[in-house]
Amino acid sequence: MQITLFGMDVEEKVHKLFVNDLKRGSGFENGKKRIYDLFKRNLTKSETIKLLKDEYGIGGRSTLVYPEGYRQGHGSKGIEITIETGEEKQFTWSQVYDELFNLIETGEYLEGELEEVLEGR
């Protein structure tokens, strides 16, 4: 039996929140541009992951906006998403890399904000 939350599978909801959170960038000024630039350099996956860890550092953020309230924490193991019902999922830095790579390659990472991000606004 799958657990559903507002008509959406919990795993699907957590993944959607994870992807949307990645699209916000690291939370630091111009962090989204720095992340985008990492993927445009000729680096290995492990080199990029090390730099992603440095960009994100240790910390997190949260939102209480209903029904999408969630908490995101990031540290040495990766990014953890916890939804308002208490379910949580840890995404490793390798998974973060893979998702970011996909978002950047498909153009979804900078959707509608390419010029602003690239200009550092």
Short descriptors:
121 residues; alpha+beta; four-stranded antiparallel beta sheet; two-stranded antiparallel ribbon; 5 helices; 6 strands; disordered N terminus
Explain what you see.
- The protein is α+β, with helices and mostly antiparallel strands and 121 residues long.
- The protein has one domain.
- Helix content is 45%, strand content 21%.
- The chain is built from five helices and six strands; from the N terminus they run E-E-H-H-H-E-E-E-E-H-H.
- The protein has a four-stranded antiparallel beta sheet. It has a two-stranded antiparallel ribbon with strand order 1-2.
- A hairpin with a 4-residue loop joins strand 5 and strand 6.
- The longest helix is centred in the C-terminal third of the chain and has 14 residues.
- 16% of the residues are buried.
- The N terminus is likely disordered.
Q: Any idea what the radius of gyration is?
A: 15 Å
Strand/helix succession: EEHHHEEEEHH
Give a count of the beta strands, DSSP E runs of length 2 or more. Answer: 6
The oligomerization state is single chain
Strand fraction:
15-25%
So how many helices?
5
What is the topology, as strand order, of the major beta sheet? 3-4-5-6
Q: List unreliable stretches of 5+ residues.
A: 1-5
Helix fraction bin: 40-55%
Summarize the biggest pleated sheet: 4 strands, antiparallel
Dominant shape: globular
**Structural class by SSE content:** alpha+beta
Number of domains: 1
Look at the structure and give the mean pLDDT: 86
Spatial separation of the terminal alpha carbons? 46 Å
